[in-house]
UniProtKB/TrEMBL annotation:
<dbReference type="Pfam" id="PF00005">
    <property type="entry name" value="ABC_tran"/>
</dbReference>
<dbReference type="InterPro" id="IPR003593">
    <property type="entry name" value="AAA+_ATPase"/>
</dbReference>
<keyword id="KW-0547">Nucleotide-binding</keyword>
<dbReference type="InterPro" id="IPR027417">
    <property type="entry name" value="P-loop_NTPase"/>
</dbReference>
<dbReference type="InterPro" id="IPR017871">
    <property type="entry name" value="ABC_transporter-like_CS"/>
</dbReference>
<keyword id="KW-0813">Transport</keyword>
<comment type="similarity">
    <text>Belongs to the ABC transporter superfamily.</text>
</comment>
<keyword id="KW-0067">ATP-binding</keyword>
<dbReference type="InterPro" id="IPR050153">
    <property type="entry name" value="Metal_Ion_Import_ABC"/>
</dbReference>
<protein>
    <submittedName>
        <fullName>Zinc ABC transporter, ATP-binding protein ZnuC</fullName>
    </submittedName>
</protein>
<feature type="domain" description="ABC transporter">
    <location>
        <begin position="7"/>
        <end position="207"/>
    </location>
</feature>
<dbReference type="GO" id="GO:0016887">
    <property type="term" value="F:ATP hydrolysis activity"/>
</dbReference>
<dbReference type="InterPro" id="IPR003439">
    <property type="entry name" value="ABC_transporter-like_ATP-bd"/>
</dbReference>
<dbReference type="GO" id="GO:0005524">
    <property type="term" value="F:ATP binding"/>
</dbReference>
Length: 207
């Protein structure tokens, strides 16, 4: 029997003011599947990811999510005044686990997530003192530490060097192997090659 999709979007229509951006988009992502969302600049990828994540509400249509969701967006900057370390940022990802038993558990999960993204050595460094690519990896760690059922990423590999980008692709495959439904916006050919399925948006329509 086919499994139910972890994420199912039906007839999604959306616009900013008078500008229609998405036109009746249908998209399903199965547990364990990596879907790459490709398309030219301005085709509506980020908007669609935000609707899938529940950050934006569509004008028409709806999204069904089966399980917990983590969204990793591109965060090029961090205010210098923000008094948080890389480790703090990742630890925040564990907060959804009201049931996560102990602080020790949260600390271990945080360390493990930082290791997976190759950021253990910079765990104590303030976020504002990390490079763009390092921050990107920290926010990926924050997403995976939640142990989500659905992982959405908006150009999370942008600005990563080749080694970090490859590591990220590996992490996405590992997440999928444990049953996570992954949908990633990308312009990167390597990410597209690693996906189980590529869907392409053009002018707000899936083609
Ligand atoms: N906050 C906003 N207000 C008004 N229009 C917006 C807003 N955000 C995006 N748009 C417009 O919506 C359209 C789709 O933008 P979106 O960011 O979803 O595209 P994208 O495919 O992710 O582009 P890119 O590859 O450049 O990141 C574009 O025409 C853009 O100008």
């Amino acid at each position: 029997m086919a499994s139910l999709p972890a994420l199912s979007a039906r007839d999604i229509c959306f616009g900013y003011a008078d500008d229609d951006v998405l036109h009746s988009v249908d998209l399903e992502v199965q547990p364990g599947e990596v879907v790459a969302l490709a398309g030219s600049n301005g085709s509506g990828k980020s908007t669609l990811i935000e609707i899938l994540a529940g950050v934006r509400v569509p004008r028409r249509g709806g999204v069904r999510r089966d399980g917990d969701l983590a969204l990793v967006v591109q965060r090029p900057a961090a205010p210098d005044s923000l008094p948080v370390t890389a480790s703090d940022v990742v630890r925040m990802g564990t907060w959804k686990h009201g049931a996560r038993a102990t602080r020790a558990d949260a600390r271990r999960a945080t360390q493990r997530a930082l290791e997976r993204v190759g950021m253990s050595e910079l765990a104590a460094r303030p976020l504002a003192e990390l490079s763009g690519g390092q921050r990107q990896r920290v926010f990926l760690a924050q997403g995976i530490v939640r142990e989500p059922d659905i992982l959405l990423l908006d150009e999370a590999a942008a600005g990563l060097d080749r080694e970090s980008a490859a590591r990220m692709q590996l992490i996405l495959r590992e997440e999928a192997a444990r049953g996570v439904a992954v949908c990633t916006v990308t312009h990167d050919d390597a990410a597209v090659a690693l996906a189980d399925r590529v869907v392409r948006l053009e002018r707000g329509r899936l083609i």
